[in-house]
Structure formats: C-alpha cells, structure tokens
C-alpha cells in the first residue's frame, strides 16, 4: 500500500516551485511534478528532494547529522533556540499591511538540519507551517519527523530555491549558508530574516582543546553586512552568551556536527571527561527592503 504524502508537504505544495523550470508543483500519490514534466519522488522517511543538477557537497554526511541530532537533544543550545524564537515571534514580524488573504503563517528554515529549531518554533506557534530546507538526506529524515507541521525538502541553498515569490513570513538561518537575494525574493512584504552566527569567542575552550577545528572568520560581521545590506534593513539583535558544561560525548558530538568533522580524527580528539565551553552567538533580525 502506497503511503500518502505527509500533511505538511501537502500544505506547503501551493508555495513550492519546480527547481528546474520554476513552474508550480502538484502531487500524484508520492510524486511531485510540474506541467513541464519534471518529477520528484518523496522519500520513505517523509521528505522530498527538489535538488536539480550535480549533488551539493556542503551538506552534513550521515555521521555529522547523527552527531547534530544527539547534541541538540541534550538541550545545551536552549539559550540560542530561545533567542531565535524571540526574534521570529509573530508580534515582532507582523506586516503592517497584512499577509495575503487566507495565507497561513509560514516559516522557512534554510539549512534546517534535524529540524530542532523549527520544530521548537512550531510547538510554540500553533497553526504555523514550517518548511525546512537542507541537502543532507539523513538530516531531512530527522526533520521530517521532528514536527507534524514541518515539511522537509531537499534544496541547495546556493541555487534558486524551490519556493514562490513572497511566499513565507520568516526565514531562519542558524549557522547555515546564506542566499540573500533568494531570501528576499521568498519573503512577503514586511517579512523577516533571522540570522544566527558564531561570535569570535564561540566554543573558544573547545577550539583550544581541538586545534584542528575550523576557525571563525574575523571579518564575519563585515561580510554579513555587505551581503545583506542590498536586500535587508538591520533590526534588533540578541547576544547569546552562556557557559556550557559538557561531558566528553556531548563535546565530541559538538565537534563532529560541524564542518570541523572533516578535519579531525574522531578517535583522537582527546577530550576530558568534563569541559566547560562558552556558547557565544549573535542573533539578528533583518527586514526586507
């Protein structure tokens, strides 16, 4: 017996567009397709890949996705999650002219990973539709079951994204690549982009313990402003800074869920049984110009 498409994917369908020709998509059993003849099969786990062209190489591999899911499940990043949700709250994202008549409030998580942040938002904001985009097959499996209102979709953040113009109210970008022109295109008038990125001292103690970890670009804020300014106006910002006391397993997962996993030997991390590290993240909101 063929499983039906998840309700969240069907709810998101009017907003989705073919990644090849940008035509609207319809659903037939477990396949999405457009009038141009392009077809995309849903995975058994409940996600659908709208990737086209060569497979992206930037997404989490299976081990990274599992490490991320385990670490986030500890709740250690709760202060960061709360800051993201504060800046994405409906009362601070309201469009003075109102959303299109009949439109359901929609939040897009660009680079959603396991869906941890988006699922928390959906639990806090009942009735909201969540769309999570990622290139990692394993991450999308986690995201597809993170919340019943979360539609998990495979998409390359560096390409044209498979959503209609002015189709979402909020875009979340938590430690993910950014595509400012596409984010601005997809956001409705008055829509908000919420960006979380590491401050210079983020996980400093862990980086000292594991020197092979990828460093933080000292010009990150300058580059961020230069990329966003043509499309967005800067709004409020929250600085998240808190000590995290981690056991060796959680600390290892924190290393292995990041791009640093490609530069370290998991068997040679040499982490202590307990380590205190600093969570230091800047979370800012930007409004479409």
Strand content: 25-35%
Identify the strand order in the major beta sheet: 4-7-6-5-8-9-11-10
Q: What percent of the residues sit in helical stretches (DSSP H or I)?
A: 25-40%
**End-to-end C-alpha gap:** 49 Å
Domain Methyltransferase: 107-191
Keywords: Methyltransferase, S-adenosyl-L-methionine, Signal, Transferase
GO biological process, one term: methylation
Signal peptide: 1-22
Report on the structure:
- It is globular and about 55 Å long.
- The mean pLDDT is 93.
- Helix 2 crosses helix 10.
- The strands form two sheets. Strands 4-7-6-5-8-9-11-10 form an eight-stranded mixed β-sheet.
- Helix content is 28%, strand content 27%.
- It contains ten helices and eleven strands.
- It has 289 residues and is an alpha/beta fold.
- Helix 5 links the parallel strand 5 and strand 6.
- It has one domain: Rossmann fold.
How would you concisely characterize the structure shown here?
The chain is α/β, with parallel strands linked by helices. It has helices spanning 7-12, 62-73, 78-87, 90-93, 116-124, 137-144, 180-186, 204-209, 220-228, 248-256, and strands spanning 26-28, 31-33, 39-41, 48-49, 106-110, 129-134, 150-154, 168-174, 187-198, 232-247, 274-288. 28% of the residues lie in helices and 27% in strands.
